[in-house]
Amino acid sequence: MLLRLFNSETCVDYSCQTYIYHVPDVNNVNGLATLVNLPYLALTLLITVVVRSTFFSILLGLGYTQILEFMLAGIFYSASWTKWLFTNVHFSASFLLNSIGNRAPKLPEHILAPEPALIVAALYTLILMTLAVWLYRRQDVGG
Description:
By secondary structure, this protein is mostly helical. It has helices spanning about 25-50, 55-75, 85-95, 115-140, and strands at about 5-10, 15-20. A two-stranded antiparallel sheet has the order 1-2.
């Protein structure tokens, strides 16, 4: 199944940027969704290593990403630092998929552009995975 080429234009203070994405097939959409979900997996792994319980790591991870981040993003909606939260990075990378169907959505100012969002997601994943491996190697598993 082929998707068509889609454009998105963002305008801030009368200067416009146009993002053009070539999405040749649905597999790229799945790959994009996988890339932006990797920080969530890395966070869950880090919490699992710290608390040594899969159940509590999922509970804490969901509590952070689904409750705390949504509350912070809602309370501090116009603050510039909220664009770096996991939820907004995920939304930033997948936002332009809304333009499928020949629409040109405007990029809200509380989220990043898609390319930096993917880079930030990769950095979050790298940092969290490195920290999880480092903490795991320091654990005294035998005693």
